[in-house]
Structures are given as structure tokens and as C-alpha cells.
Amino acid sequence: MEHLSSIEKLTQLWDQQGDGLLSVYFTAGYPQLENTMQIAKELEQAGADLIEIGIPYSDPVADGPTIQESNQKALQNGMTLEVLMRQLEASEFQVDIPVILMGYFNPILQYGVERFCRDCSDRGISGLIIPDLPIQEYLNHYQDIFDQFNLKNIFLITPQTSEDRIRWIDEHTGSFIYAVSDASITGAKTGISGAQEEYFRKLQAMQLKHPFLIGFGISNKETFRFACDYASGAIIGSAFIEVLSKAEDLGADIRNFVYSIKGN
Amino acid sequence: MSFPIDSNGYYGSYGGAFIPEMLYPNVEELRSKYLEIVEEPSFQQQFGELLKHYVGRPTPLFLAKRLSKEYGCRIYLKREDLNHTGAHKVNNTIGQILVAQRLGKQKIIAETGAGQHGVATATVCALMGMECIVYMGEIDIARQRPNVERMKLLGAEVRSATSGSRTLKDATNEAMRHWINHPFDTHYIIGSVVGPHPYPDMVARFQSVISEEIKSQLLELEGRDYPDYVIACVGGGSNAAGAFYHFNQHQQVQLIAVEASGLGLHSDKSAATTALGKPGVLHGSMTMLMQTADGQVVEPYSISAGLDYPGIGPLHAHLYQSERARFMSATDEQALSAGIKLSKLEGIIPALETAHALAALDQINFNPEDVAVLNLSGRGDKDLETYIEKGTY
């Protein structure tokens, strides 16, 4: 039995499914330290197409209150990158859909960038989103290490990103582009405005090399479908963290949530 | 004669711009225009006039004779405490608000810890008729009531930062989040030589007026335009950056940076970043940072709210690593008694931040012919309650 490499998993998603992809973000170690595997598994079974696991950080500047609180709680629970890497070891963590790690740069720097890349590669991580490691710093100082382990960084763009810069990011991003829907932090707004629609149209018309997923402001079926009209899919973070924060039955609540987004 | 910085904003291996893409347009606009703006003759003229007529510069360089006698050398005090608003902070806020105007911004945001930078920002916003929002940690709001009221009196809105540890670093996070959400009409006036490039360089330039004046004043007073020592306290490090600026390339000048060691270096209640920190990324730059083994930022402690920051400016991290500057530290107790000593010897009550620099005088072996300049970064009125409560005099 041949296993797909972690990056092939993502490529296969675009090739075989191509659109309507649902990516769900959650913070590792939240609501409980040991929930990481269970949440990932439930998301997979419920029909999420890829998952983004957040590495908690004390100072998440690009995140709104919902994700900040989940980060703080996860840290209180004892989550660290060391613990997360143990949880992600293959014998423990049996999830087939692509898994992306998302985290701020400082914990990765302290873990050791090379060690982090090696461990991600060993654990079949399909990509990385590091919001405060911008493309220029990445190319100047870290790309060689990431390349050595065949790991790809997925870069963000916003409605304020110039066309030239989008093309440049398209050259270097791994597997897809994360299109932030609005000038905002996570969880700041829900819903999509006319200006955003124009931005999505522009992205669509640019015929980029990489597919793009839309994130920020996606919280329900309506906004998810709207995003999918323009993009290959969408990313839900804060709205899912809200569900986790109130969950009484993790499994059932996760299934209901995914169904409420993706179901008919 | 400045600090060596490369085109990507690095001082050696420290600095850069570690910012999320959402902040890129704001920071890039500033980066691509700040040098041109600050070098324009009309900017220089307006900046100079405001420093002279509004701030009250040049500030005196005062030979503190009784203090000098105590330490057996010649100690000059650079009187930044005599600036309008009582500290060096206003040099930077004047500069940045002029930049903001030239960038066409209408609104100003700032972060503040003890409230000194918040007051300096609210002051220049009132002066220029600009809207001002200051983020301040919930805990700091409770313990710095007079400065909160001062900012409000000046017309600023003070917003409570309720996330994380609810102090200066979280106020900075909230200001950054606000800036992400308002990318077009708002300029963020960072209060120290921290943050993503070009902030450290821009703020250091505005504060460099301190060492520029020291040079010409020393020439007049001592017949040479450099001292043997420049001594300054470091939280984020803006007053030290300004005092060191024009002496950095002058190898005969010893640069002494003094951090706050709180209840003691190894008491877990300290803010001595170079002694306790490791390289890390916070608020947009690679610098020395107090953090856990897992890379979570540690909440620092000092009796002085202005030194209570878990990082230092990247230029200071470089001064530390390259051993160009000597980094020392002073405890709460040492700072308090040094502040009281200056009050009694020279009739000047210093800010508790500055008192840390004064405490370092005890740790230096001076020769009788040495000339030392100590940057008296702020006045102590704001700290009166702490002096009363914790000091013995």
C-alpha cells in the first residue's frame, strides 16, 4: 500500500475535488489538553477537507478575542510545541486528510526551526501557516531550511495586497494562498461586503498558479458558499472555536457544525 | 554617526519586520517614505521649531557637583526631565505626528504602560488637532490613574487592553490589532525603539537630538565633544538610543545601558531582558526577549512601569551582542535609594526609570578625570506615591 506524501495529499485535494473545500482551524490543547486528536478525527469524519491546528502563543496579534482566549486556555492546559509534536506522532494521530500547522513564529524559533521542520515532515504535516513570518523574512533567512525538509509555507494576502505582491506570493506559496477576506483580525466581522466581492472577483480573474482559500469572516453556510463561488474553498476559525467553547458533546457538536456548513 | 542598520532593518542579526500580511501595507508605506519625509528641510525646520518653542529644547547639560564628588569624577546630567510633559518621550511623539500628517493620516493610536508615552502622544494630538486613541493595559489603568486622567483631559480616548496579562505588551498587541483593522487613516505612534522596521530607526532618529545636544554642550563645557561614559536606563530603550546615537561610532565612549532587575535578577520578578532573555520575535522584530523555553513571552516585573517590558529594541540587542555597550542592572531597592540620593544631593527628583541609571553609578570604577553623562530621562513627580510608600528618606 503506497502512502501519499503529505504535500501530495494537498495536491490531490485540488486535483480531485477542486472546489467547495472546507478547512477548519482549531487551537491545539483547547478546550482540553488531550482533545487535539479527537477534534481532528471528528472533523475528518464529519467531512472537513483539511484541518489547521493552531500552536498556541501568548501574544497572537493577528487574532481576535475568541482565538486569543483559546490560545490562553490551551497554554494554561499545558500545551507546548513539544507536547503537540508528541500528540501528532503517527501511532497516536491517525488522520488522513491534510493537516496544516498554524502558529506564530517565536515558539517555532525557540523549538528550533530545523528541528521543527524535521518533526513536521516526520509527522506528515502538509503545510505551514506562520502569520508573522512574512515572505521577505522567510525568503531571506529560512526558506533553505524549509526546502530541505520539503515543507511549504502558505502565505496570506489581503484586500490591500497589491497585484504585483500577490503574483510574487503566488510564486512562493506552498499549495495554496490564504486570502484574508477583509482588513481585520480573526473573528472581527462576519458576513461579506460588496468591496470584498470585488476583491474575490479580482483574485479569480488573476488566474493564479495556486488555488486560494478564503478565511476571516466565514462563519456559516451562507458565507461559506459565497466564498466557494470565487475560491476553492474557505477557512473557518473563530466560529468553530466558539462551538468548542460551548461544546457539551464534542463529537456531536462538531458533526452538527460541519453539517451546518457543508450539508445540503 | 548612527547605529549601523541594513536595508531590511537589521542591526546585525536583530530587527527586521516580522509582521502579519495584514500590517504590511501600513508598515510598508511608512518604510518607503519615512527617510524622505524626515530628511526634508521643511520637516526638519518644523520639528526643530516645535522642539525649541513647544518642548523647551535644548535641555540643559548640568554638572552635578555634589553627585560628582560622591563618585570621584565629573558627572553631567542631561536634563530630559525638563522637557514639556516631563520626559524624553515627547521628542518622538512630535516627530511621529509630523510624519503622520505628511502621510495624510487623520487618526493616531498609541500604546502606553505607565502612561508617559500615552500622555506625550495625547499632548501632540491636542496640539495638532488629531483624534487620539491610547491603548493601556487594564491593570496599568488601575495603578496609573493620574496619567489616565491626564490623557483624557488632553482629549484622548483611553482604551483598556483586557487580553493576555493586561499590561504594556498587551496594550501593544491591541494597538497592532487596531491598526490591522484600520489600515488607511491611522498612524500608530510606537513609543520606543521597538516594533517592526522602520520604527526602531525612526524613533532613534527622533531621540538622537539628545546626543546631538550633549556633543555641542560638552564641547562648550569640557572642550571636547564626547564624554568617557554615557549612562542610560533601558526598558524598550528609546532614551538610551537617543543618548548613545551620536557616540556609537566613537569607541572611546563607553555606553552603559541599565536594565531593571526588579526584586533581583533571579527572583522571577525582574525585567532585565539581556540577562534573562534569549533571541526571539515580539511586536514585529527579532530581538532579545524574556520568554519561557516554549517561546511564550514572560510578564516582566519592575517597580518602574516604564522599564516593565519583556523585550528591548533590536539596536540594543545588537549593542549587547556585539559588546559595544555594557549592560548592567539595578534592583527596585537600589533604584529607589539612588533616586532619593539624587533628590538630596542635587535637588532633582528623578523618575524611577532614571533612578535605575543612577544606581549603576555604584557599579562603575571612575577615574577622577572621567567625564560621565547620565541621561536624566524623566522627572519623578509621577512616582511620588511609590517613593512615599517604598522609599526611606
Structure, described:
- The complex is a heterodimer of chains A (264) and B (393).
- By secondary structure, chain A is α/β, with parallel strands linked by helices.
- Chain A has a single domain, classed as TIM Barrel (Alpha-Beta Barrel), CATH 3.20.20.70.
- Helices cover 48% and strands 13% of the residues of chain A.
- Chain A has helices at 6-17, 36-46, 65-76, 81-87, 105-111, 113-122, 135-148, 163-172, 194-205, 221-230, 238-246, 250-262; strands at residues 21-27, 50-55, 99-103, 127-129, 156-157, 177-180, 212-215, 233-236.
- An 8-stranded parallel beta sheet of chain A has the order 4-3-2-1-8-7-6-5.
- In chain A, helix 2 (36-46) packs parallel to helix 12.
- The longest helix of chain A has 14 residues, at 135-148.
- Chain A is globular and about 45 Å long.
- Chain B is an alpha/beta fold.
- In chain B, helix 4 (89-102) crosses helix 5, helix 9 crosses helix 11 and helix 14 (332-346) crosses helix 15.
- Helices cover 42% and strands 18% of the residues of chain B.
- Chain B has a 6-stranded mixed beta sheet with strand order 3-4-14-9-10-13, with helices on both faces. A 4-stranded parallel beta sheet of chain B has the order 7-6-5-8, sandwiched between helices. A two-stranded antiparallel ribbon of chain B has the order 1-2.
- Chain B is built from 16 helices and 14 strands.
- Chain B has helices at residues 24-39, 41-55, 65-71, 89-102, 116-128, 138-143, 145-153, 168-181, 199-207, 209-222, 238-244, 273-276, 314-321, 332-346, 352-359, 384-390; strands at 10-11, 14-15, 61-63, 74-79, 107-112, 131-137, 157-161, 186-189, 229-233, 254-262, 278-282, 285-289, 325-331, 371-376.
- The mean pLDDT of chain B is 96.
- In chain B, strand 1 (10-11) and strand 2 (14-15) form a beta hairpin.
- Chain B has 2 domains: 18-50 and 89-203, Rossmann fold (3-Layer(aba) Sandwich); 56-87 and 208-390, Rossmann fold.
